[in-house]
Amino acid sequence: MSEPTSKDAKQPAGGRHSVDGASKVSGSATRGARAMRVAREVAIVVAAAIVLSFLLKTFLIQSFTIPSRSMVPTLLEGDRVIVTKLAPGPLQLHRGDVVVFQDPGNWVTDHQPSVRRAGLSRVLYGALREIGLAPADSTDYLIKRLVGLPGDEVSCGGPGELLTINGVAVQETYLPPDTMPCALAFEVVVPEGAMWVMGDNRGASSDSRAHMDEALGGAVSQDLVVGVAQLRSWPISRWTLMRNPGAVFASVPAPHQGGP
Asked: For 26-46, b where at least 16 C-beta lie within 10 A, e where not — what string?
């Protein structure tokens, strides 16, 4: 058998160079395809998260920032809460619930300033708020404690007297120490489809008592309710579930049944 010539011997080396070049091109294409696949998967995850957040905000939960001192000590100014939108609706409202509701028209006062944003910051915040990734503006909503349901007779005799519902005095354990349940005497019957709301910090709350000369006699239409606060989510040091103080109202009879 004849020995390969020098020309024949060089050809395998050239072939190896061709193979190596093709391998490099193939490897680059593979890495590019892998990067595109990862980018596509990340985009799908982000889009799904945005859609899920929007659906949760629209139908189930929403975040709000506390704008004032009216709910101290339960909620401090600057706290954030998560509310469930299942009540009213699938779930019922109860006495003692901390409810977020739309401003009936002129309840939001000057001591609840909004954060002014402009330009890109305003656009981005608005977009995040719409999809539920930023809390709603405090100038559009209020948060108070529901103490009276439709038909309830809510009254207070003035300084030193307890709040009375349907003839039964209630010991409101959620009020700040040494706080009077009411500074002025009043007596109302909550209209159908409405609710009577009061801030826990009675001396610093513009609530149903301050609007008794308006429509519904100070009560708020339940149609304006966004939801019930379930979680104090911020700051982390104050993170806690917000439970209804059912024991406070346990002895209150149904409307029009009088006292025990």
From this structure: eeeeeeeeeeeeeeeeeeeee
Q: Inform me whether the pLDDT recorded for 12 exceeds 60.
A: no
Catalytic residue, from 144, 155, 205, 208: name it. Answer: 144
Known catalytic residue: 7?
no
Query: How far apart, in whole angstroms, are the C-alpha atoms of residue 23 and residue 151?
Result: 82
User: For residue 131, which of 29, 56, 228, 188 has the smallest C-alpha distance?
Assistant: 56
Q: Which CATH number is correct for 61-249, 3.40.630.30, 3.10.580.10, 3.20.20.70, 2.10.109.10?
A: 2.10.109.10
Question: How far apart are the C-alpha atoms of 184 and 34, rounded to whole Å?
Answer: 71
144 is catalytic: yes
| pTM, two decimal places | 0.72
Dump pLDDT digits (tens) for 72-118. Answer: 999 999 999 999 998 887 889 999 999 999 999 888 864 444 455 55
Place of tokens 């030193």: 160
Q: What are the distances in angstroms from CA 229 to CA 53, 74, 248, 258? A: 18, 11, 18, 30
The catalytic residue among 63, 68, 70, 155 is: 70
Phi/psi of residue 3, nearest 5 degrees? -75, 150
Q: What is the DSSP letter of 136?
A: B
